[in-house]
Amino acid sequence: MGGNLWRTGGDIRDSWESVSRIGFSQDRLAPYARPGHWNDPDMLEVGNGHMTDTEYRTHMSLWSMLAAPLIAGNDVRNMSPSIHDILTNREVIAIDQDKAGHQGKRIWQFGQLEIWTRELAGGDTAVAVFNRAPANVTVKFRWAEAGVPKPPSCIRDLWRHTEQKGTGPEHPRFPVMTMTGFCTSTSGIEKTRWPASHDCNRKGINGISDIRRYRRVISQLLTLPD
């Protein structure tokens, strides 16, 4: 008998240390992932109560970039609306389940800042920017440095469900979420300080952008079967 997925590490725990250690170490395993052959960094810990919603969004985003099995590890009978929204984000799930089956790769790193990209079916590219540092930063990069040789005509933020027209060879400057409580869309246009009660106050991802070369394919690619 043969299997089509395999564990790539030890058991995961519901902690940012565990999720980040396991998730960000998967880059070297990208050559082994393809349709019918999947790297499995272990189940999702989203909603188990020991991380913030920001960290859970990071968890979901990173696992989707890795084309990892999305196995919910929480009690789905009893979860908050925010956890439900994270686990059922159809656009992020569409990245995970993209039929090309490529695993995302780390293509740029400076200290604790990382950019990951994933080639999608039809020539599109998913880009995730992560800030694992305890300080605010502003990131600006050229699309070519992110493995996108042709500037995209459309950028979509898969967590905010918003779109922005491409701006040329460079991605506009945008703040990346850190422990200080700043959150932003990947477009770099909006910057919001959340109320102190909001749990968006720890390390995380500022967003995951699905870059579209042709606007006409967006709805088709992001529509999942019911």
Using brief descriptors, characterize the structure shown.
single chain, 226 residues, alpha+beta, Immunoglobulin-like, 6-stranded antiparallel beta sheet, two-stranded parallel sheet, 12 strands, 24% strand, disordered C terminus
Sequence-ordered SSE layout with sheet pairings:
Blueprint: E1 5-7, H1 16-23, E2 38-40, H2 53-65, H3 81-87, H4 90-96, E3 105-110, E4 113-119, E5 125-131, E6 137-139, E7 154-157, E8 162-165, E9 174-176, E10 182-184, E11 191-193, E12 204-212, H5 218-222
Parallel strand pairs: 1-2
Antiparallel strand pairs: 3-4, 4-5, 5-12, 6-9, 7-8, 7-12, 10-11
Helix pairs in contact: 1-2, 2-3, 2-4
Describe this entry's structure for a reader.
- The protein has 226 residues and is α+β, with helices and mostly antiparallel strands.
- The chain contains five helices and twelve strands.
- The strands form four sheets. The chain has a six-stranded antiparallel β-sheet with strand order 3-4-5-12-7-8, with helices on one face. Strands 1-2 form a two-stranded parallel ribbon.
- It has a single domain, classed as Sandwich (Immunoglobulin-like).
- The chain starts with a strand and ends with a helix.
- 18% of the residues lie in helices and 24% in strands.
- A hairpin with a 6-residue loop joins strand 10 and strand 11.
- Helix 1 (16-23) packs parallel to helix 2 and helix 2 packs parallel to helix 3.
